[in-house]
Design goal:
heterodimer, A: about 200 residues, mainly alpha, Rna Polymerase Sigma Factor, Chain: A, Arc Repressor Mutant, subunit A, 2 domains, 11 helices, B: about 290 residues, alpha+beta, Immunoglobulin-like, 3 domains, 4-stranded antiparallel beta sheet, 7 helices
Amino acid sequence: MAIGKRLFQKTKDCVPRGAGEDAELVAGLRQGSEKSFEIIVLRYHGVVLGVATRFLRNQSVARDVAQEVFLALWTGKERFDGRGSFRGYLCSMTVHRCLNLVRRERLHREKMPELREVEADRDGEAELPLNRVLSAEKAEMLWDKLLQLPDQMRETLMLRYLHDMSLEEVATSLGLPLGTVKSHLSRGLKRLYGLCVEEGS
Amino acid sequence: MSCVSVEELALLINRQLTGDRVNEVEEHLRGCLDCRQKRQTLLAIEGCLSVHPKDFVDPVFARDILEKARELRPPQEERDSWSSLLGWAGPRWVLWPVAAAALLVLALILVPGKPTAPAAGGGGGLPDGVQSRGSGDDASDAWVSFAVFRSNAGQNVPVDGRIRADDFLAFSYENRRAEAGLGFLMIFAVDGRGSVFWYYPAHPVEGENPCGMPIQVTASPQALSDKVRHPLGPGPLRLWALFSRTRLCVAEVEARVRGDLARVGFERLLRLGVADTAQPSTLLEVVK
């Protein structure tokens, strides 16, 4: 029985007609098309919410940030300039906003030390094994560093890890040879590794 | 052999090294603490960055964004409104379930890889299925997932967020990263009243204390053969797949679940306080 096949048929029926590629959607968005905006939200709210949740470790704040990202797109406060992929742009925008939020919060905390306790109770995240390896501060630096990588390298890492794509899919999506993508991945991870080691020493 | 470069280790953990070089590097890693630490740091970086967008798909949230957007800017012409998007001329509220379904199916397309449905009649290796990934914040959750299927009348159907109280449930799992060391699995559910229902290991006699089952490292979905039905009541039900490094048993996990439930309540219980585990979970609604 081909369950997957049958569902795929359903999928085709459910995808709004004219739901095109990202470039088409972005063009529609610029013209104020609600249709384009809806498809963008349906298509990408998972990744935006995922990145914000992973970064902020607090679901309700992450939802606020994700909503802000989409509304900034809708109101024209943020515009995709066509460089790189729209997926990568959305991720960068989300990470930027998370970084700004965390920095603002830190400033606020420095002024109000009693708020520090709140941070320690972030959904029990502090107890997780890998977060013992990468502290919240280090993770923040990692995201920051990610944004500073050269365009193609950054996009490769974002599509690989934030969009959960295979390297072959990343290569197709960016229109790059697989070998180049592998090189961007390994060199990008090396740079992030350098940050962790440098900061840790 | 001299130490392995970070770039090469990055390729190794992304399964991009080939041929004899893989064996050479792995052999070196066995005897070199420095390189093992390098690999561990790279895995931590990957874990920190890894997101499964599908885990965060939330139709209600998407609807909220669209509602807010509408408040910010009135719709343009009718032909370009949310409703006309689907060619619908009736009441708008009818569109939301359709939008939710479209969202779910879109997510299935966007996330690569399909799990295998467990065999309807027992045994694995069956037809294509659809994954119901859970959410989770543990970095090691990035390398595991599980899928839930309703198993009725000899067929396994992917769960779409809702099950009937009399459904038999079947499962499949993925455990993609050997380095994560997650060798055991337990699957259980908690309902809105705080009752705990065990699927793996299922045990008919209350008071028994069976332990998690050993699992293999597998990049493709592995079907579990048992179909289990519990006397569920209508309402919310959160299903957990608890992947652990050590073999946990029912009593200790259940005690932790009850403690966490008492502390934060059902609604807020998204992670269990069990160390060194990956905990994807998924929220379902049980209907009569």
